[in-house]
Amino acid sequence: MAEQTPDPTDPTGPDDRINDDRINDDRINDDRINDDRINDELVSALNDAYDTDPIPAELSQFAFDAFAWRLVDDELATITFDSATTELVGIRGTSTQRHSVQFEGRGVSVSLVMSDTSLVASVDPAGVHRCLIEGPQVATEVFTDDDGEFVIDRPHLPLRLVVETTAGRLVSPWITA
Amino acid sequence: MTDEQTYSPASPFAVLVDGSLSGSAVAWQSLVKRLERVVWKAVNMMTTDDEIRKDAFAATWLRLVERLATIREPEKLPGWLTTTATNEVRQIIRQRGRQQVNVDWSAPQDVFAGLLANTDDAHGEHDRALVRDEVRSTVRRAFSSLDEECRQILTVLVLADPPVPYKDASEALQRPIGSLGPSRMRCLEKLRNTPVMQSWVSGLDG
Description:
The complex is a heterodimer. Helix content of chain A is about 30%, strand content about 30%. By secondary structure, chain A is α+β, with helices and mostly antiparallel strands. Chain A has two domains: about 15-55; about 70-170, no CATH class. In chain A, strands 1-10-9-6-7 form a five-stranded mixed beta sheet, with no helix packed on it. A five-stranded antiparallel beta sheet of chain A has the order 2-3-4-5-8. Chain A is elongated. Residues about 90-95 of chain A have low confidence and may be disordered. Chain B is mainly α. Chain B folds into two domains: about 1-100, Orthogonal Bundle (Rna Polymerase Sigma Factor, Chain: A), CATH 1.10.1740; about 100-205, no CATH class. In chain B, about 75% of the residues lie in helices and about 0% in strands. The interface between A and B is large, with 44 and 53 residues.
């Protein structure tokens, strides 16, 4: 008996098409289930790979000690601009060595620009303000000049700037990068 | 009751946050003990640079002390810390202009095929521990070869425990909410397609 050879150019043949679709659907479902399974395994391998690192004792101690830096009566300034976070979402920064932060509170606004070598602060309204550069180890006192500015050698990070205003102390968020 | 009796790492987050805000160092230390591993894991996933992960770990705790009064949903602290830690790492890398160390692919890439088979055999506990270490370090090499964004997305969306809701992740990572699901899939796929993980995937099938 001669086999009936299907004409490959025949656009009809609904039965074949339905079968092909079903096979494709099954394959897609199988792939998806397999994908999910592999991803689950992957996530569990990742968790396992990173769950065991011992935490250096001095870091735990630092976290304990960080409690001493909580603010009780001082006002935490509001960041109005931070080049570090802006560059995270925007275009990659070209000058990676400069960090510019602006913050405000207690009726003053402050701009900080850190370069490789220096920290420039500018307080508005201008005038002489007593400031503190605070770090986990040391605090340094510095005064702005009549123009409301000071320039110092770049301190170690992290740091925060405390500005004494007529309304009380204004404390910047930690500058960590 | 003394603070020692009131607060322990097993206390609810809300109790520990309130205790810390009212000035109890014991409450704060309990909070740290409970959550330091979360932070350490996040920074380790983001970078292999020892200096950066230490600085980012420290920065994350300073940040929590600073923001403690603004934490409205204390039960979400693990996710908040994970997200904050990954952001701190990214900012430090960006600011210092330091690039991720190049990944060393020189180890045999079919490491998994043999290793996975061996774990099922009746080898001694010592051998199995060695095998587990080898698998861990290989997975870490593969993960550290991903770009920074993928490492952050997978750390926050997949490995935070409990996982960070997309809505919160969208805010914290400053990415459109609709991009997160597809990014998560794309990044997992990237990880699977790294040379070392390819042989791991075939090991699963075999």
